[in-house]
Amino acid sequence: MAALAEWHHVTKDYHGKGVFDLCLQLEEGETLGFLGPNGAGKTTTIRQLMGFIRPDHGTVRLFGQDPFVSCAVQTRVGYLPGETAFPPDMTGGQFLHFMARYRGANCLARAEQLAEYFELDMGGKLKRMSKGTKQKVAIVNAFMHDPQLYVLDEPTSGLDPLMQNRFVELVRAEQKRGKTILLSSHMFEEVEKTCQRTAIIREGHIVAVRDMQALSNSRRKLFTVELDTSAQAEQCAAVFSGAQVSGVHVTFPVTARQADAAVKKLAQFCVKDISVRSQTLEELFLHFYEEEEA
Amino acid sequence: MNTALFRYDMRGHGKTGVIFLAVMSLYGGMITAMFDPKLGESLEMMAQSMPQLFAAFGMLEAGKTLTQFLANYLYGFLYIVFPMVFTVLASVRLVARWIDSGAAAYLLAAPVGKRRIAITQMAALAVVPFVCTAWAFGFCVLAAQVMFPGQLDVSAFLRLNVGLLCLQLMFAGVCFLASCVFHDARMAAGVGAGICTTFVLVQMLSEVSDTFNWLRYCTPLSLFDQQALLAGEGGAAGCAALLAAGVVTATAGCIVFCKKDISV
Questions:
Q1: Which end of chain A lies in a sparser environment, N or C, as judged by fewer CB atoms within 10 Å?
Q2: What is the per-residue pLDDT for A151?
């Protein structure tokens, strides 16, 4: 396997924000998730790959070329921007026609197929479209010329759950066709469904690059249990490691494989209410730091 | 040049362009109709009563001939300012607004290089001065032919319009540079319009009285010497200088666009 995209010790400093000494490789045929909270540097990393901005230090390579200088490689790239801003006064259809002509690509048949797949009405003015509809136009634009590499910056933002699922299906179909995909997101679930490998970025640094399955397994659920009295709550907290007590509520983390044991342990208490939520990204990252420090 | 982008740019010009050309035609028709050797005398009397004001707009000399009259009343102020405003608006639309809105991402994420994008937009902006001056020339020649057949010295009038074209191309270069330098559309418009307006105001002030006459060396508008162009004596060097200024600033704009980070 060869690296289609490569960041080599890349630094882009925006007065303390940005990315710092970032190293990352995107191998041919893989789907790499790029996960991080808002403002972590995902978009800055992607803009450098697309050649919009030049790194202060380090080098970026796209198909072995410097993307800031060479535009020819862009024929093989489908890019979905993180922000959906379109030129004004065009309908969705006009925009896609314009982009096809602008790119010099004969891809309108595929554009129409994709529009149909996403139930996109191409006749509406772009500026009057809802966020979700605009996002569909952006998706069709990224996929219509059948590129080899997809660079997708938060691709499902604004889409309803049905369309999110269709998008996941589309990405999986492209994976099967051997395409390479970089998918950035601040939502774990979005990346979890499609990616084999995930890079985690925080405050401009790559914290970890992990196999998606391992990452899913290490992500814990947080159980919050309501008990009768605070005394009982204290008792309950003693049973679970990492538990925190707040009045009659106890919150403790449970990994996927421990769910059964946790429920059985809970059976000895009089549980009035129970709620379960997944760890947020920040909580997951804390877990990584703890791992690294240990 | 990218034809798809150029065609989109031309459609963008269309809406504002029609309005500007209509206003230019309105004034062109009105001023031509106003020409009357007798009226000229009364206009001259008016000009004598408030010479500074008339001088500021380049209208002190009423002009004995129709060609002189048009040169003074249209090419002293109106036909300088209208195309200039159009150019300012177009320059912002062609570059800064793409970047400001973030839509430039689509232009950049395609196999079209930054230099090609910049050259396409520069060419699309240069269309504005060409169309405006061609329209001004054509419309006035037609109006003069209809109202005062044979009275317009067409070759002198053509020289005047070539001069105007060079002046407008200088404005376009300055505005293009401003639009490439500033990411913010309002900032780009403000700086482009600010510089061009300053040039015009300084020119107007320098005409008012001898006290301010030295100001004519502070504005490139002095290089557009209507009288010299009409007479066919000199004036060409000034035009060449204006044209050169336009080419230099536009090239600088292209270089800035290719080198700078475009965070979209």
A1: C
A2: 97
Output the pLDDT for position A255: 80
CA atoms of B221 and B170, how far apart (whole Å): 10
Q: How confident is the model at residue A74 (pLDDT cuts 50, 70, 90)?
A: very high
Tokens of B167: 């002046």
Q: What are the residue ranges in chain B where pLDDT is below 50?
A: none
Show the 3-state SS of B182-249: CCCHHHHHHHHHHHHHHHHHHHHHHHHCHHHHHHHHHCHHHHCCHHHHHHCCCCHHHHHHHHHHHHHH
Contact B264 A85 (CB under 8 A): yes
Domain boundaries, chain A: 3-215, 220-278
Of the ranges A93-97, A117-121, A200-204, which one carries the lowest mean pLDDT score?
A: A200-204
Of A53, A75, A87, Cβ closest to residue B111: A75
User: Contact B4/A102, CB-based, under 8 Å?
Assistant: yes
> Which residues of B lie closer than 8 Å to A, measured between beta carbons?
2-5, 8, 12, 98, 101-103, 105-114, 116, 261-264
Name the residue among A273, A222, A265 with its Cα closest to residue A249: A273
In tens, the pLDDT along B50-71 reads 777 777 776 666 667 899 989 9
Q: Right CATH number for A220-278 from 3.50.50.60, 3.40.50.10420, 3.30.70.120, 3.40.50.620? A: 3.30.70.120
Nearest CA in chain B to A90: B8
CATH superfamily, with its number, for domain A3-215: P-loop containing nucleotide triphosphate hydrolases (3.40.50.300)
Are A3-215 and A220-278 equal in CATH topology? Answer: no
Give B137→chain A minimum CA distance, Å. Answer: 32
B181-215: pLDDT as tens digits: 998 999 999 999 999 999 999 999 988 878 888 88
CB-based contacts of A174-180 (< 8 A; 24+ apart in sequence): A174/A143, A174/A150, A175/A31, A178/A29, A179/A29, A179/A147, A179/A148, A179/A149, A179/A150, A180/A4, A180/A26, A180/A27, A180/A28, A180/A29, A180/A30, A180/A31, A180/A148, A180/A149, A180/A150
Cβ contact, residue pair A99, B8, below 8 Å: no
Q: Between B42 and A274, whose confidence is greater?
A: A274
